[in-house]
Amino acid sequence: MAQSQSQSQTSGGGGADAFAGYRPLPDTYDELYVPSGPDGLGRPRANMSKLLDPLIRLGAGELAHRAELAHLALLNQGVTFSVYSDSAGVEKVFPMCPIPRIITASEWDTLERGLIQRTRALELFLADIYGEQAILANPKIPTDIILGSDAYLPQLRGIDPPGGVRVHVGGIDLIRDGKGTFRVLEDNLRCPSGVSYVLENRIVTKRVFPELARRCRVRGVDTYPTRLADALRSVAPGPDHECLSVVLTPGVYNSAYFEHSFLARMMGVMLVEAADLFVDDDKVFAKTTQGPKRVHAIYRRTDEAFLDPEVFRPDSMLGIPGIMRAYAKGNVALANAPGNGIADDKAIYPLVPEFIRYYLDEEPILEQVSTYLCARPDDLAYVLDHLDQLVVKMVDQAGGYGMLMGPQASKAERDEYAVRLRAEPRKFIAQPLIELSTTPTWIPERGRVEPRRIDLRPYVVSSPEGPWVLCGGLTRVALVEGSYVVNSSQGGGSKDTWVLEDDDPDEPEAGGTLIEEMIEC
Amino acid sequence: MLISRVADHCFWFGRYVERAESTARTLGSTRETMLGAERAAPISWLPMIIVAGERERFAELIGEARAEDGEIVQNYMVWDLRTLSSLHATIRAARDNARAIRDHLSIEAWEQINGVYLWMKSTDASAEWERDRHGFYGRIRRGMLLLTGIMRSTMLRDDALEFVRLGSVLERANQTARILDVHHHAITRERPHVVLDTAMWLGLLRACAGFQPFMRRNRGRVTGEGVAEFLVLESRFPRSIRYSLASARQRVEGIRAPDGPGERSQQHLAALRGWLLERGPELLAEGQIHELITHVVDEVHACASDISSDFLGG
């Protein structure tokens, strides 16, 4: 089957054109196509047609073959996640659409500056709120919403993290609205996941689309593990050469275990579980084959509620008793810092532009989405009146769980949700439905390319020298037709995200890093 | 230096990989021996079950009388997931351990074990099982040998690899001992039936990948005592008990930090080797193979316990 397809390709043209009949959705920004003509049929954007050309020429049969190759590559590499709702131990491949998502150099330039600005402000806010709390004197800041949040952990106040960094890894989710403007949708400052897919997707794309990769100069992503390892070392107490960093995972049954193992492998550091660590004399040690070894920096991929039973969850059998004492004494760096949830809380999100003005004295570079805080009576009244136009989210839920998509929900669903809203308004926020941008996506069961909605999660790594942004990030795609929900747990997939080296992809020989150079891993 | 839990996964990864290779080889060679067997009476596959330590469970799940049916025994030893000794379960256990130590395995090593595991679950494997039994066992055997070779040629010479090899050589000593034990009656019988027993000995050598090495060492002279001595004491045959134990001792020496834990394992392995060199030839000459093997199997088990408490947090 695969054989005959590649033969037909070499004989010129892989049969049906997979892009024929591509129609961008109404009122939606499509990143590669614009509608042309009265029937809504699309044509490639002028600056994208050269990039798209080799893809379009492949034809549907060959595209199907390449998509299958991509799936096989991920399966063989074990790039899988575990699904909670399924029986234990079921691993699934996070589906990857082989057609890359493309961001131009000038678009990226703005995003990168905006992400650095936002991360700096959030970092300063955390230092302040767990320190002096000077910002609470600002009349524009609602003190009760901050200090009353479950995500604010007063027991951490006065603890200075080693190296002064709290957001070692930030994942800031972006979407594009109907006009194509990038907007921040939410911040993830606790332990954002997904970066392993960015690196693996790039390897797969190079393997399955060598002709496309050769043509475009795409900025590399493979320095991420080095950057992260450096950031951990830079905040670890003690001399550099003695620094022992570890990745802390909940274990092989965690849905993101592949990523934990991947990062440990790529950084060359030990992968540990909580039971492998213990605290003695307010220092953290690993139980090794050569006896106890001091640990200086922990990239923790465990929920902070299970970090230290002495502090957070006394009933928890998990965790490392005493680790918070070691942290408070500056004997171990924890990445990310516990307590960061107060800065990425959905109810705090509307305040971030104000943080940027307050701490940096700058205007925000990135737009965000207007948000109604149901804790405010006026906002609640508006939300209840306009449920059919709004997306309502629970402040303490992630992953697309517990939300109401007002415009798509039935009247009964909205009425039921309204009861919950009135009962506990503090738990909810609401936003207008944004027509997330689309990009051409391979739909295997239809054998053609159709528009599907996407978002973007860039990754920001911070050391005492400041933030650094990984070029691109994770593009998630809602594979289900008409869906706005991109989460892997809800039928989402991913795409390789290409940031172009420059905006004229016409001259592939003009220097820069050619993407065809393989990543060694 | 390794996290003890990780070292434990490495150790068991090595054991399961070795066990899968050995089980595939033993099943294949037993089958070939049966096909060529000259005896008229039905031959039992029971020894195969006993080598795997599965006699009781097989009797309970399948029934001991059915051990005469080679298809039933092979089905049980290849596909039955109710036992950890089946090839399918062993490969799955190897892959589960590999997944826990992915950051220590080379990417090629991971792809190899994951590839064999995915194949084993696929319809390709069951189709090959039906169509070409010889090819089926060969594929698993080669898959595991390739994995061992990949690890040797792509991985850092550090403790992770040493623990994998330690698990592998201990499992090998154990497998060779058990295979020899279930056939000891053929070697110690007073009046051997020359043709039949020679076939049995050769099958025994094949089950340990020792046919050609034995022939070279003994210039074609096949006796029961010769086969037993070769499998127990031959210092240059990598699957002999002596060689495997010597290798285990080297691994432990390499792993042990000066003043670090491991003294007990090291001494225990040295003591077993000393016993083997001293009492081994004597016991073999007296035809006391079963006594010798029983001691070796017990002591290998005890050494594994020492290794576990010295290094693996057990």
Can you give keywords for this protein?
heterodimer, A: 521 residues, alpha+beta, Rossmann fold, Dna Ligase, domain 1, five-stranded mixed sheet, 13 helices, 25 strands, disordered N terminus, B: 314 residues, mainly alpha, 2 domains, 16 helices, 76% helix, 0% strand, globular
Secondary-structure topology with pairs:
The complex is a heterodimer of chains A (521) and B (314).
Chain A: H1 2-10, E1 33-35, E2 42-44, H2 49-77, E3 80-82, E4 91-93, E5 96-103, H3 105-129, H4 143-147, E6 169-176, E7 182-188, H5 195-208, H6 210-215, H7 224-235, E8 245-248, H8 257-267, E9 270-272, E10 277-280, E11 283-288, E12 291-294, E13 297-300, H9 323-328, E14 333-335, H10 341-344, H11 352-360, E15 367-368, E16 372-373, H12 377-385, E17 390-394, E18 404-405, H13 411-423, E19 428-432, E20 438-443, E21 448-457, E22 459-463, E23 466-469, E24 474-478, E25 492-499
Parallel strand pairs in A: 5-25, 7-15, 8-9, 8-13, 13-14
Antiparallel strand pairs in A: 1-2, 3-4, 6-7, 6-22, 10-11, 11-12, 16-19, 17-18, 17-19, 20-21, 21-24, 22-23, 24-25
Helix pairs in contact in A: 1-2, 2-5, 3-11
Chain B: H1 4-36, H2 46-51, H3 55-61, H4 70-79, H5 87-100, H6 107-121, H7 123-131, H8 133-154, H9 159-182, H10 184-188, H11 194-207, H12 211-218, H13 224-233, H14 241-255, H15 263-285, H16 289-311
Helix pairs in contact in B: 1-4, 1-5, 1-8, 1-9, 1-11, 5-6, 6-8, 7-8, 9-14, 9-16, 13-15, 14-15, 15-16
Describe the structure.
The complex is a heterodimer of chains A (521) and B (314). In chain A, helix 1 (2-10) runs antiparallel to helix 2 (49-77), helix 2 packs across helix 5 and helix 3 (105-129) packs across helix 11 (352-360). Among the domains of chain A are: 237-331, Rossmann fold; 370-433, Dna Ligase, domain 1 (2-Layer Sandwich), CATH 3.30.1490. Chain A has a five-stranded mixed beta sheet with strand order 5-25-24-21-20. In chain A, strands 15-7-6-22-23 form a five-stranded mixed beta sheet, sandwiched between helices. Chain A has a four-stranded parallel beta sheet with strand order 9-8-13-14, covered by helices on one side. The model of chain A is unreliable at 1-14 and 507-521 (pLDDT under 50). Chain A has 521 residues and is α+β, with helices and mostly antiparallel strands. Chain A is built from 13 helices and 25 strands. The two termini of chain A are 31 Å apart. In chain A, 47% of the residues are buried. The longest helix of chain A is centred in the N-terminal third of the chain and has 29 residues, at 49-77. Chain B is globular, with a radius of gyration of 19 Å. The two termini of chain B are 17 Å apart. Chain B has two domains: 1-154, no CATH class; 157-314, no CATH class. Chain B is an all-alpha fold. The mean pLDDT of chain B is 89. Chain A binds chain B through residues 75-78, 252, 257, 261-262, 264-265, 270-273, 275-276, 286-291, 293, 521, and chain B through 1-7, 96, 99-100, 102-104, 107, 110-111, 114-115, 118, 159, 163, 255, 257, 260-261, 311-313.
